[in-house]
Amino acid sequence: MSETKQKYLEFQKHIHADVILVAVSKTKPEADILELYEEGHRVFGENKVQDLAKKAGNLPKDIEWHMIGHLQTNKVKFIAPFVSLIHGVDSLKLLKTINKEAEKNNRIINCLIQVHIASEETKFGLDEDELKVFFEGVLKEGLNNIKITGLMGMSTFTDNFQQVREEFRKLKLIFEELKKDNSEFRDLSMGMSNDYSIAIEEGATMIRIGSLIFGARNYTN
Ligand SMILES: *Cc1c(COP(=O)(O)O)cnc(C)c1O
Question: What's the whole-model pTM score?
Answer without folding.
Answer: 0.96
